[in-house]
Amino acid sequence: ENIFDRSRMAPKTPIKNEPVDLSKQKGCTPERIPITPVKLVDRPQPDPWTPTANLKMLVSAASPDMRDREKKKELFRPIENSEQSDTPDSLQYDMVDDNTVDEFEKQRPSRKQKSLGLLCQKFLARYPSYPLSTEKTTISLDEVASILGVERRRIYDIVNVLESLHLVSRVAKNQYCWHGRHNLSQTLKTLQEAGELQYGELMTFFQHKEQDLEYKFGERKKETIADSQDRPLLDFSEPDCTSASANSRKDKSLRIMSQKFVMLFLVSKTKIVTLDIAAKILIEETQDTVDHSKFKTKVRRLYDIANVLTSLGLIKKVHVTEERGRKPAFKWIGPVEFPGKTDELRGHSPTSDPLPGTQRGACAPCQICATGKQRFTRHASFNGTQPCEGARRKVSSEPNSPHQERQACIVNSNEYCSKMINLAAVCRQKIEEDTRNSSITSPLSLLPVPGDSDFCVNPLPQAVLPVVQADVPSLSLPNGISSQALHPSTPAASKTENGKPTLLPNQPLLCFPSSSLFMLCGGLQENNLRETLPTTGDVGNRRAEAQATISPAACQKRSSHKCALPSAPVDDEEPAAKKQTMEQSDVPLSLVVPKKPFESPKAEYTPGSGCTSAEHLEDFHLDLASPAAPEAADKESTKPLDSQEQEKWSQNKHPDEPSPGKEHISKENANQPFLPQYLYVQPTAGLSSFNFLFSANQAPGAVSLAASQLPSLSIPCVVVPSAALASFPLICSPTITTNPLSPVPDGSFSAATSMNFSMSGLASTTPVFIGTTAVVTPKVSPTPSVDPQQPAHPALHLSPMLTRSCSAVKLDSPVCMGHPVTLLKLQQPSSTPLTPKSIRPARHEAFFKTPRSLGDPAAWKKNEGNQTRNASSVQRRLEISSTSPD
DNA sequence: CGATCCCGCCACATT
DNA sequence: AATGTGGCGGGATCG
């Protein structure tokens, strides 16, 4: 329109002759200037004003030359247009004297007004976030550039980033297809997975080499890089994506950088990434040499990307204060988890991704998968199969063409990246932790889950079970929860450290002081336990243990990765665990390992099919982690039970851990009738009215309660009115794990309802009993049905209460199936009640967007301050608008 | 003065 | 060769 107007305007209004109303002119934009005779003269194009003049103008505008020139002048315009003077008034004002114009120009062109972020917002404003699937919107770069009054170059900056997130795709030269955010979550998932994978690698890598944080900030990047190169780790770089992309020129660094940048956020626990770290990571990936200039350039690019991401509402600026001082950073405020979608992810485990075919094989049930238009597995999906069906960059030519490459490759093999990412994550985590510690909020902060918010869980002062998503391994409690963990070697050591509950290994039950009760029953199918047990003080120990335990798994994983073993979907969890650990400790990578990375996925997911998502939701972590409540942590540490149990379990499990074992178990379980066992959680915990019963069918190992860490237990859960169970303490029967009896296939069950519990989070007050023997809870009748297919359903059979839970579960499944959006909500709410995900340890908060709730006050303040700054784009607008009116 | 990041040159890719 | 893309970094502006 603008152009049009201008063209008309200019021609029509021979400036000279028609002196314009200066008064009006204010509103006018510089545009006219070009139009004005004088300027016209300058320009080649100014044709005599003829009837066709307008046309010519338009045409000229189209031409590159014109564009540039006009744009220069127009640059100002866009702002005006968008904000102030988009109105016709400007037209009226048409003629402006040069003088006036100059003034205007001076006023307007604030740098901010020209910012990429603002431009991006304008750009985004032009298209619906969720366009109808049917309609495809094509974007003409020239058109947009002219409309927005910027050079095309700038549009490229925007589009490239959008393309990396699959919001748009290149259809043809100069043409892009707008997809909107429909696939965003999936894309993010994919990125997350990819990031985690890399992460994992890093982890292993680090373990092998050095765990020191040295790497942290990438000083050592080179070495790492070299190492990484050496490392066989993953070469995701499959020919597909990587090679091609790599080959191609500079390989669209912006796109790739954007993806990597996003991955960093998704991988980091804190969700905060500092620019320098990101830059280092990205650099390393690409290069060995870390020259300063390069770094500088990288940072510039990151700003470009960040601006776009900010406009998308995915990140915001914040400042992180470190020892050194305050560093610019960005915090992820977009969706953290993609539960609904994530199902896919899970299903897909990163490992699986590589294999397109297999991808979700496991997930078959998951609709999402089916739907999944986009799962891009790394290469394949990205490249060839794109998420966006419609838009492929290269229309005409071969698929191989470099352009296509762009799309692909999110993940190429960049071990470096992963390493870097890890480092970065670690660094961040540290930072955050530091900050958190200082400003711990409540002992147990609820983790605000983006979607889950619905959840009414109030933060439980006492014992809140922060639920951690399945993906994320329960975090170890930063504070010291002691637990060691998982390591088989340290089995019994339940530490009585703080007040650990006294748990007698042999004895059936453990008692905890706390008021709230939990009953855990049933064998847990999986060992979900992530045993990340943060020892109170010792992260190192844990890590060591964890690593030890993990390492094998990791190795396998790696191999799997390379191989793209379909089976190894599990990665998700592991990575998460790792992440957490990372966060917690400065230590770079302690990985806690995932308990059963491989298997779990299958077992859980497979049976559960859609349910996987549920898991996430359901996972409870009782982490005291929240900085605020170190004390609480200690108390919780009381959960020694967990530790012991874990140990026990771990012992038991260890053998099983390998996925195969689990699978077996699950199968067995399925076949076997089981005694329903439940876990009951009193409302006191923070769930105001809900009590949870979990039936534990799972494999014995599955439920590990690490006192501090909280291994996650996957348990089917039922929500029961608190009244019913009010008086019960938590009881866990460790022995149950192996119950053959459970009729319901563990896998299915677990999948559907499996929850991870981390005991660590429990309020000190809550008494917990753990019984070695299976406890039977009355209310729920076990469901005999053993359909693997219908894992989730079994719950229904259970008591009404159960039903609820089941329903929730069911919901999840649907979610999995298809609509991401819907799914999310459904799951969250439904699940939420079941699993207090919402309640998370402060640390976790990172995942969740709700920044403020969790964050340290101080941090907040800072953040806010930053935000204000950051908010720039919006604010700027406002400011501008306000100011400009003059 | 450091953080941001606009601007546009210019190389490489595609047509 | 023309045009499309986009890496890249100087240097301006912001805070």
User: What's the overall geometry?
Assistant: elongated
**What is the topology, as strand order, of the major beta sheet?**
1-3-2
Q: Profile the largest sheet.
A: 3 strands, antiparallel
Taking all residues together, what is the mean pLDDT?
43
In DSSP terms (H or I, runs of 4 or more residues), the helix count works out at: 39
The proportion of residues forming helix, as a percent range, comes to: 40-55%
Which structural class matches the secondary elements? mainly alpha
Q: Roughly what fraction of the amino acids lie in strands?
A: 5-15%
Biased composition (Polar residues): 81-90, 481-496, 865-886
Organism: Sula dactylatra (Masked booby)
Family: Belongs to the E2F/DP family.
GO molecular function: DNA-binding transcription factor activity, RNA polymerase II-specific; RNA polymerase II cis-regulatory region sequence-specific DNA binding
Description:
With 886 residues, this protein is mainly alpha-helical. The protein has a domain at 116-213 and 250-332. Helix content is 47%, strand content 6%. The protein contains 39 helices and 14 strands. Strands 1-3-2 form a 3-stranded antiparallel sheet. A 3-stranded antiparallel sheet has the order 4-6-5. Strands 7-8 form a two-stranded antiparallel ribbon. A hairpin with a 4-residue loop joins strand 5 (315-321) and strand 6 (326-332). Helix 10 runs parallel beside helix 18, helix 14 (221-230) packs across helix 23 and helix 34 (800-817) runs antiparallel to helix 35 (820-834). The longest helix has 25 residues, at 184-208. The protein binds a DNA duplex (15 and 15 nucleotides) through helix 6, helix 12 and helix 18.
